[in-house]
Amino acid sequence: MRLILLTTTVVLMVAKLVSMMSVEVPSAPEILSMGCHRRSTRLTWTSTGQSPVKEFRIQYMTSWSPNEWINYPFLHPIHDDNVPLILNPWTNYTFRVIAVNNAGASNASLPSDWCQTEEDVPHKNPDNVYGRGNGPKNLVISWTPMPPREQNAPGFFYTVYYKQDDMPTADWHIKHVLDWQQSRLIVENLPKLRPYRIKVEAYNSLGKATQEAREVIGYSDEDMPSEAPKDLRLVDIIDGRSAHMSWQPVPPLTLNGHFKGYKLQVWTDSYENRSEQIVSANTTKALITIFKPAVNNTVQVQAFNGAFDGPVSNNITVSMPVDVYPDTPAFMWTRHTDRHNRAVIRITYEPNWTNDNPGRLIYIEYRRKGIDSIDEWTNTVPEGMDESNQHIDLVDLEFDKFYEIRVVAQSGELKSSSNISTIDTGLNKWPKPTTTTTREPPPTYAPYVPPAIVPSDDSNRQEGKTRGQDNDNDNRSPIADEDNGADDSSSKTPWIVALVVVLLFIAVFVTGFIYLKKRHTSSASESNNKKTGRNKVSDKIRSVSMTANPNEINSLVINVDNQRNNTAAANGSLGHDEGDDNDDDDNDNNGNDDDRHRQVYNGTTESRH
User: Fold this and answer.
1) What pTM does this model have?
2) Residue 198: which CATH number?
3) Is 126 helix (H, G, I), strand (E, B) or coil?
4) pLDDT tens digits for 11-68?
5) How many structural domains compose the chain?
6) Are residues 215 and 244 in the same domain?
7) Contact in structure between 579 and 587 (CB atoms under 8 Å)
8) Whole-angstrom Cα distance, residue 439 to residue 472?
9) DSSP SS3 for 488
10) Are residue 169 and residue 188 in the same domain, yes or no?
């Protein structure tokens, strides 16, 4: 079964590979027609050539951007050979089509005829409208110009409106700007430091824009503030990055414009590398959080209005400590009972890297709700958590009680605590896992089941078998399912090539198997021949004479004739067979006899070959 599955997989993969290799880039499409309407068109084309097409791309060029082809923005890939297109008014369009498949994109089709859409009023007004004075008794109104592709008709111009905002009965003053490239209008002889309501509208020969213009507030005759804040001083230090600073407010008559607030600037080595924090205009004491720990920081402050920054105050030096409050930690919790029927709360810590300071020590604090003092917490400092150990089990909790739990991050003497979670340890109240983070919580542990009602092993095995069968059904050949949707327009040639490749694979496999089999047989035959040669040599030395030295008193001559070997030789029996095995045993016995004779007679042996 595995061989069939493997073969099928190889066939499909080879077929897919060959199919991809055999697919060519599509030929360039041919545009058939284009219907041009007031603000839309319908483009129709046809594919040429035999290569399959995965999708089409449409590009356009306008009279406002000649020689620049732009992809038409579709929400989904285009598979049809005719589509409607929405166009801008008062624009000349030409189109071309590109076919795409797995091999790449085709050449673009020949451009279509030009299509000119009808005129319309502007669909928007200028963006980034702003007003402020930059000189005595004036107001500069500025905006972003609208390019021709947004004008929608000839005769385009801007209409600028302004009126004094602190006078309820004031009328709009109107100015026309005929040059569409102009980006500002200067209004002279206005009262000093007065707020003005401003708006700019777009018009063409057909009328004003369909949208209402947004109104903004600008101030006339703004100048640089003439005085700097005084008495800048340090109130207290919070940690290595933050401290409270205070200063005296700037007199209103010295602001010379619309007061926006204060800028506090902090640096350590050079003013060019300063950091800046802005506080509101009605503030003279603020928490500044842009200091650098463990070094001396220089601080200064200045006021600013809608047009200019004022002079800077005196600067002071602040020596910042090393420790910084850790980023507020987060955690999630689950609860269950262990085998000793104890309520177990698992707290999983999630470090906070917002300011790259999750804390040097992380631990848990918990207490009985409504019983313990508001300041008395039990903690797990000896079991501190870190990146390698991000959870702790609380096992000394009582059933049917409410507990308050939080995670604390500590750096030096500075601590940051998470939000407090209230947990009910009631046996019959099993909530879903609760978390103070968006991460997915770990699975909830099932309650402990007494041994008397534990399911039997047979039922567990049956359940495991059922789950295994379901998993087997889910894990069947995903490749076969994936490739069932192969392109029907592909040629049958890839399948023939794939079949040939599989047959070659099988032939190589069979040839290798036969070669290994023959090699094994040859090795066995060679081993038998070597053993037969050894038997022949042993037959020649079967006759052994042991002769005592004639000079010795005790001597004995023993002639041993192996009649069984002679008989076998007379009958023409050669090779290693059962008789030879017995001969080997006899030889072993004779050798043992010879050893006994050597021990008894103290003679010498001599073998003749």
Assistant:
1) 0.48
2) 2.60.40.10
3) coil
4) 666 656 555 555 688 889 999 998 888 889 999 999 877 778 889 999 999 999 888 9
5) 5
6) no
7) no
8) 31
9) coil
10) yes
